[in-house]
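Fold this sequence, please.
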Amino acid sequence: MTTNIDKSYQLARERYAAIGVDTELALSKLSEISISLHCWQGDDVGGFESTAGLTGGGILATGNYPGKARTPHELRDDADVALNLIPGKHRFNLHAIYLENGGKKVDRDEIEPSHFRDWIDWAKQRGLGLDFNPTYFSHPLAEDGFTLSSAKKSTRKFWIRHGIACRKIAAEMGKKLKTTSVVNFWMPDGYKDIPVDRLAPRKRMEDSLDTIFAEKIDPKHELDALESKLFGIGSETYVVGSHEFCLGYAASRKKLLCLDAGHFHPTEGIADKLSSCSLFIDRILLHVSRPVRWDSDHVVIYNDDLRAVAEELIRNNLLNRTHISLDFFDATINRVAAWTIGTRAMIKALLAALLEPLKQLREWENEGDYTSRLAMLEELKSMPLGAVWDYYCERLGVPVGTAWIDEVKKYEAETAR
C-alpha cells in the first residue's frame, strides 16, 4: 500500500466516522457488487455474424477511432485489459450477433450454445458471469421495422424461434458458469409516423413473448427481462414496447423490468422510477447509459444522474434485486478506455451512496427536519470520497487515479490495429 494513499484514507476514514459512516463496511459491500460490461462497446455493435456489421434497426454508433475489435479473440483481449483496470469482480454482456460460427452462415433462429462455447470458456477461466441479449435488429426480417409484433406470421415465428434459442443459450451459460444469466429482450418495433392501430402490434408482441417464455427455465440459470423505449430512429412516433407495455408485461408475467437511462423523455430520470417499480416488480435490470439530448448512448460519467441511480439502489436496499449493466457505444474514443471510464464511474457512484449516513438522514426526514437533511447532503459533496476510492483501487490491485490511461495507451500502441 502506498504510504500517501494509506494516510489519506485513514484521514478520510476518520472524517466519515465523525458523521456515523464506517468506510470499511462500505468497501466490503462495494466489493460484492458486479457490473455487467457490454460487448458492443468494443466493436461498435458490429458483432461477428457476418462482415456487414451493423445495418440499422434504430441503433447508430458514431465515430471512427482506430483499433476496434475485429474478431472475438480481439474483443476478449480488449475486455481483459479493461477488466484489469476496474476494481472488483464483474460480468460480461453478449448480444446474439457475437456468436462464433466458424465462417458458416447461421441464421438467428439457428444459434446454439455451441456457438458461444469459447465465450463460456473465457468467462469460466476468469470467474466471470455472462449475460445475454437477443438481437432484434440488423437483419433482413427486421428491415420494415417490425419483429415480434410484425403483421406477417412467418416473420413473427422466425423471431420467436430466435428468442427461444437465446434463452437456451443463456441457460447453458448459467449452468456452466454457476451464476444466473440475465437475458434482456429489446425490440425496436415501431412506426416513424402516426399509426391508426396502436393496439394490434402490442397484442401481437404480447402473444409472441408468451410463446417465447412458455418453457420454464430454472431461474438459478436464466432470467428474462423486458426493455422499453420512448422512441428510436425510424420509430419516432410509436414504439410497440413502450414503458407501459413492458411494465405491465413484466409485472403480470413475473419478469424483470429493464430500465435504460436513455430510453425515456430527456427530462425523465430512471432513478425516480426504481422505488415505484420495485413495489410491483421482483427484480430490475438497469442499462446505465448517458443520454445527451436523446438516446445517444454516451460513455457513463460520474454525474448527478448516475449518483441519483446509485443512491436509490442503496437507500432503498435494492441491490439484491437489481442487475446493473452498462449500455453505451462511443467510437470517437479508445474503446477500452470507454469501458474503463464508464465502469469505474458506476462503481464510484455506488461508493458515494454507500458513504452516506443513511440512518441519520432517515431520522431527520422522518422527524420533518428537512433543514438538517439538506445541509448534510450538501456537506457530503465535499467529503473525501476520492481518498476512499483511491484506497479501494489500490487495495484491489488496479491503477489509482489516471495511471490506467498510460496502460491503455501502451496496449493501443502494442496492438496497433
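The first helix runs from residue 3 to 17. The chain has a mean pLDDT of 96.
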